[in-house]
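Notes from hallway chat w/ T.B., transcribed later so I don't forget. T.B. wanted the structure written out for a chain they're using in a teaching module, and asked if we could keep both sequence and structure tokens in one place. Agreed to drop them here.
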Amino acid sequence: MPSLRQLEYLVAVAETRHFRRAAERVNTTQPTLSEQIKALEKRLGCQLVERSTARVVLTPIGAEVVEIARRMLKDASEIRSLAASGGKELNGLLRLGLPPTIGPYLMQRAAPKLHRAYPGLRLYVREDLPLSLPRSLEEGTHDVIICPLPFRGVELESMVLFREPLHLTVAADHPLARKQHAVLADLKGQDVLTLGPGHQLHETAIELCKATGARLRYDFEGTSLDMLREMVVMGLGITFMPGLYARSELIHDKGVRIIDIRDRKLHRTISMAWRKSSARRETFERLAGLFKKMVATGLEKQR
């Protein structure tokens, strides 16, 4: 049988399509990784990887083996995590995936509290686009994800954590900044800035622009919420900022103004999800409850 280490090397090669980068990912040398891939091919009696100076390509059977390897590595990780927990719920390594529009602003509040309450919990946090997170969870890259609804994944279970308000955000010298409250009709003809495709905020902005007659500026898509804020300050348009970010970064920023839209409450629903097959369902439900409590008070104040 192949070793788990060999399977880990093979998956790294499949995902990076490069032996050096794969070796860096799994913390080994390129010659060692290459020799182990060759040993795996010899043991299985078939070629898994086509090698050339220009690129690395999986053979058809290699691609099938990689999919099985991902499942085996996921199951092995589950076994290690369960053993490390010693029967305790929040203990051992937990791989959490979440979007960059949530990660820093949620974790700066949650991480210290989680560490104090559960010092044995090793939380590995990795950011990714919302549209990519469910598939990464199904493939075993993450143990659990925090992601805006809706998302697809027939093999996933989820629990709603909170409803996060979206705030109309304009430059301090923008005409709308003089208003105490705005209405949807005020958005007609406005230039709207948002993040690029793959972010749930992008889809929300498209829907709002269609409903109100605003113009989505595809030529000025932001790469981060901080960059969106700077473009708003420079007068390139208005945007909609999520509540966690607004509470963390905008509340004392004199360059922007946050305005409520009176005739429509904008929000996005954030949930936690895990695989139905996971043996750690109770752990994830407990963790979801903790995140829920940590976030609820601050967001209630913004409504």
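Follow-up for T.B.: The chain has ten helices and twelve strands. Might be a good example for the class.
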